[in-house]
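Support reply, case 0932

Customer input (verbatim):
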Amino acid sequence: MKEPALRNARVVLLHLPWLVLLGWFSSVAWFLCDDAFISFRYVRNLLDGHGLVFNPGEYVEGYSNFLWVLELAAIWGLSGVAPERAAPWLSVAFTAGTIAAMMWWIARLPLLRHRGLVAWMAQGLVCASATFAVWTSGGGLETRQFTFFIVVAVMCLSLYRDSRRGAGGASLSLAAAALTRPEGPLLAALCFGWFVIQRMADTGRFNPDWRRLIYLAAPFVVLVGAHFLWRYAYYGEWLPNTYYAKHVRPWYESGFRYLWAAALETGLYLLIPLAAVAMRNRWRASRDGIWALVLLLVGVHMAYVMRIGGDHFEYRPLDFYWPLLAVPASMGIVYLGSRIANRRWLRRLPPRLAVGARTCAFVLFVPVLFYTSAIQGTLLFEGAAIRERIVKLHIELDDGNAAWLLAAPGMPMLVAVSNDLRRQASRQVVASPFAEHREFANERLRTWKPYENMEKGAIPDDALMVGCTIGIRFYYLPDLKVIDFCGLTDATVARNPVEKPNHQRMMAHDRRPPVGYVEQRGVNFTIHPPATSELQALGRAEYAVKVGPALWMPFDSPDRQWVFDRFAGRDLRVFDRDYWMELLGDNQPVVRSDWDVYLVGNSLFYKKEQCSPEDTEPTFFVHVHPVDVNDLPSHRKQYGFDNLDFAFRDHRTPIEGGVCVAIRDLPDYGIAAIRTGQFTGEGKIWEGRFDVVEPADDGNAAP
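Our regenerated output:
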């Protein structure tokens, strides 16, 4: 094998483990989130000819990722790949592009000592970052695309700022970043200011190089300016509606907790000082201030994040920090390693005990890698193990799940502080872990996706519903107009003042409609999860209509005459007390307790005479023991039963004459036994158990 080929093979083998590690972490953290489906509905409406709107005819910019939306629309229109399938893989492509840009940057950065070691360490710091891995699939959001364009822009300013092509490339990348995320213009302004100062340092003159600045700024100003003009012409606003919906007032206390937790978990307290060492060393050696630009971008952006209070997602706005800081931090490690290797007492050692700069740098790199990745890595796997819907998820690290971590010097203090910060943040839905978003989205997909097979025209044109979590549910109900209760896609709600103080706020969920607004708009429709039979449908709502093969649409409406008028000619079914009694027929309760429980077909019916709100508030538990445990979902096999717990409000029928009724559908697999009842945080209120079929004695039966 020729020497260049051998050298290239060695480089690949050295870097491959890092890429494998990132691939592993990313597969563990793969997820979609409900918020991404808001943009997906805009994509659908654009391709359907309604324009970039959430509700046809209502021009409100309820997204903040214009370029991402256009890209997904192009992919769907040209290839037929829907956004929910295309978005995660597009994010993976931008992840590969980000790492490639980092390696290109390091390979061509002038005056760089120990280039191969710097590249290896920088890639390690990024690929071992669980936070970076979380946003590889991106939840369907545009996060990694924004990171890619910022990294490319800084790379162009570092390597090619003296050429027109380099300035143009940086400008186009910054424009693409600004069209991807709303903070793009802020970072672009910092880049332009740095460029002016750096050019003065390069030329030794105090007069700005206006011509080169124009090369850099002109493409950005034209593209981003055109988008602002288009936005105003199309939506009637200079800023997206999401700005008004989310920005209530400065929220520094929440932002401080968010950033402090991020610093402890991701090692920013190490990466930033190491980058500062590299900045000082490079400026003294060549008057190159590129690392000053990196620290400027990170520092000012941190001030911006602190002002807005952080983010609903875990460290999503900080995603571009890791690839930008990894390069100078690695250079700082190499520089410190060289200084240590040149200490007099080390140079006096015998040759066989001599320690070189590379060895010293590697010895420094190991603890840096550990302290920048260990906490977030542990949290990643703790979150990945959670396979149930938990509101305001907080993962606590302690001796029970992280004893090895707490054995490291200083870790008990770091973990204790980060636990406390995340606990406080979770109360206000700040920095919610990816697992919380994943499980919520998975639950929503299981519940609402069957509606994608619904007949066209099944929902009346003048049907109007209200909702707050408007992603997945209404992506699969594209014909239903919606008032966003939290204001992201509603201009009136987004501008309604928020009176509650900051300590009572919920990140991105503070806005509510003005008094009387919902009634004035004429909300007349509430759709419920689809059912496979008339029986199931009327167990969920007052009305039901068949909208496809084995697909029923349960819904409620305050206007009975409107329902009869709009669904005239369709097989409309209406629930009443006589219908309920007919459904039960001669069935006897399988459980007699606080509630009578009936097994009818493949559904459990819960009935209580003369019930009150106190009877319906506790959670119902339903533990289904299968005939064959192999029928259980993978995450439930270790328990031996399926958990179908539910709240009464999600599975109720109308209450008539003081009778409360709830219906819970059962799985399709063979069921041996069922345990059910109600519980609160203080314990069980009532419980009953009954056998459905006798389990087969084949070694796989449920207990």
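We compared this against your earlier run and they match. Two observations from our side: The CA atoms of residues 200 and 206 lie 6 Å apart. Confidence is low (pLDDT under 50) at residues 695-703. Please reopen the case if you see a mismatch on your end.
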